[in-house]
Amino acid sequence: MWFSKKNRVDEVVKQLAHSPDFMCRRIECKGKAVSVLFLSNLINHAHLQQNVLAFIHEQEHISIEQLASCLPLGAVRICETEQEMASYIRDGWAGIYIEKEKRGLVVNIAEKVERSLEKAETESLVLGPKMSFTESIDTNIRILRQNITDQKLVTEKMTIGVRNPLDVRVVYIEDIADQTNVQTVKQRLAELRIDEVIDSSVLAQLLDDHAYTIFPQYLLTELPDRLAYSLLKGRIGIFVDRSPTVIICPTTFFSFFETTEDIYLRWTMSTVLRAVRMLGIFASIFLSPLYVAVITYHYEVIPSALLLTIGESRSRVPFPPVIEALFLEFMIELLREAGARLPTKVGQTMGIVGGIVLGQAAVDAGFTSNVLIIIVALSALGSFTAPSYEMGATIRILRFPIILLAALWGLVGIFIGVSLLLIHLLKLTSLGRPYLSPVYPFRLADIKYALIRLPQKFYSERPKTNRPQNSRRFSWREAMKRKDLDE
Amino acid sequence: MKWMIVCMLLLSGCVQPRVLERQGIITAAGFDKKGKLYEAGSVMLSFQTAGSSMSEVIEATNKTSKGIRQDLEAQTSHDLGSGQIRIVVYGKELAEQEGIFPLTDTLQRDANIGSLVYLAIGEPNAKTVIKSKKHEDTPDIGTYLYRLIEKNLRSESLLAATLHEFIHSYYDIGKDPVLPCLSLRDDKPIIEKVALFRGDKFVGTVRLDESFYIKMLASEYNTGLKNITVSRDEVAPLLIKKKGKKVNIVMNEIRTKRKITLVSQKPAPHFRVTVKMQTEILEMSEKMKPIMQANVGILERAIEKQMKKEIEQLLAKLKAYKTDPIGFGQIYDHSVRKLQLTDKQWLQLYEDARMDIDVNVSILRTGTID
């Protein structure tokens, strides 16, 4: 160990030399040369000056050990190797070397860029908490801890990505969440051999049981209350740094159609709202295929009152019904996509241009029939009632193959499509758990969680679908024991 | 394996598409007899790009109904589609001479045609009914006739009119079908009478008020209206004025329960028909004393007596036509053990059959005000 300490600093400097914002500040202090290394874009300069530089100046006697114990900063660490120090510096820490000492010191004076907490955008609610997660994992964990104060809350840290390591936290409640599920998640995360993961949605895809299906298998949410609710019911959450959405798993098909609002509203309302949503989604998948099938093959089933209306509007259209339907569906998709890409101010005019001008013109020009415009608009609306954006997109895509089947074989084709879809859904799993639960395998007690809502007293057990270790939530009889004033 | 099934499905070819606007949609058809040939007219609906749609009657003559169909195809640029056919009208003459079963049978065999198609008899013939230009606000005569019959079935003044019911009664031993009979008034088709059949042959008609009793005896009767005329003497204690001939009473919200039992089998079948009727009085042709618990019986007895008389008249008429739409034969067949009744046997027995009628009317309300 004869080589000079200056060389060690040079090693670090060499590693970070390609960053123009890398600074190596050398200060003389009590006859010793102290080097302070940092990336100037990442740090809080006020911290650096007041708590690091000024502090070093004030010291009588200076050594790494002494600094490590006295620096007025929370996170201080002693580094053995240059690589370790370089990686800390890249994270926004400042490295300190003292001449003739073997080890270095790193202090956390990082200032991360972060936006303020905002209202949830993609999962907007009328009732209930509005706050949404942000891109910083530390803030997100903080929000979660505020939501769940249970001492059994576990936030396990894992790192994935070789080139660009990413901080991932697996959160669950230790005595509720099923241990097999937790093991599966941790194992899958540990076995990921990948250079980088950009976002939680990508991680969700990497964790998928089935890569070739169009159905999302993990729920992504930006709502802290939704995560808290899911955790307390025995599910597992995965936080990913730099991502405002949290993965919830295992997920069932029906969790994509529920919102936290369903829980906040009274049970009658939310039951009706869920039914409306389900109906809308069902209509969204099957209305246009039904139109194609009926107009192409089964004119017998049209009620006599509608026969003329449909017939007259169809008689102007020169294309077969399937082309007409595909054309209009494509137009709606185009509008939606354009609306999503455009800045909000222009987006509004897009709606008017697309909805009114194009729709009316298409009918006038004899490209489509009036009836189909209504049907396509309805099914587009229906698909947007899906609270999950991913599921909404799935439903929009799903209708195209069914339209084609309807064009090939009419109603028989639709039923072939439905059968194939059902078979597929029955085979799907999320984290190894059945996707269609509680409908298949049938769990009557869980229907109240998935399809309908009941008064609160029926929710004394956690959903069996999540296989909670401890399924008892409360005893309704005890909860409702009230003492009157005169007792 | 999975892909093989998909390929098989894809390669098996497509069904012939029948795109709606390419179809000439037949909403009604009428059949008549012309010598040895059938003469048929179909109401074809074609959609118009501008203005309202039009319907048109196309006609053809051939030996079979499917032959007619081919001749009709030659007369239009559309593919004729019978999937929306709502009503088939048979000419009175055709029904009387030939019977309509061969023609209904082909409807039944056609998968495109539902078994809830209405059948009717056209008077004087089907062609004039089908070609009538008066069809109210409906786009074509087929829809008009369909709605006309549907409405009257719902208000329960008609007994049965669907293809299914016709075929069912036709094949049933001891029961004969009935169909609505369309006749023209000022060139507009209306339902005035009900056509009676023996087997599939038209034998005669009864008025709608008579068909009320057929319906009442053949099945349960709910809702509906009945006008009954009783003689003055019967209700004398209730009347204020002493002069005049008859009193008309209109009953509403009629609910009946009927029970027909075979009392004895020999020498001739003897049935007891019990009808229990609950109703309310809607209208009376003359001012009466207030009807109370004490004197409502007078009115009830009077109605019972009149009804019994009318039912007996009707049964005599049915016997004269040798038709049994009420299904006494069925009851006979069910009640007698080890019997394989044939239509022929029943026809003989029916002639001598005796029916005792017992009507039991109870008036629940005398108008909704009380």
Automatic annotation (TrEMBL), chain B:
Membrane topology field: Lipid-anchor
GO cellular component term of the entry, any: membrane
Protein family: Belongs to the GerABKC lipoprotein family.
InterPro entries listed in its UniProt record: GerAC_N, Spore_GerAC-like, Spore_GerAC-like_C, Spore_GerAC_C_sf
Organism classification: Bacteria, Bacillati, Bacillota, Bacilli, Bacillales
Signal peptide: none
Protein name: Ger(X)C family spore germination protein
Origin species: Anoxybacillus flavithermus
Any one Gene Ontology BP term: spore germination
Keywords: Germination, Lipoprotein, Membrane, Palmitate, Signal
Compartment(s) where it occurs, according to its Swiss-Prot or TrEMBL record: Membrane
Pfam families for the chain: Spore_GerAC, Spore_GerAC_N
Residue span(s) of domain Spore germination GerAC-like C-terminal: 193-367
Annotated ranges, domain Spore germination protein N-terminal: 18-183
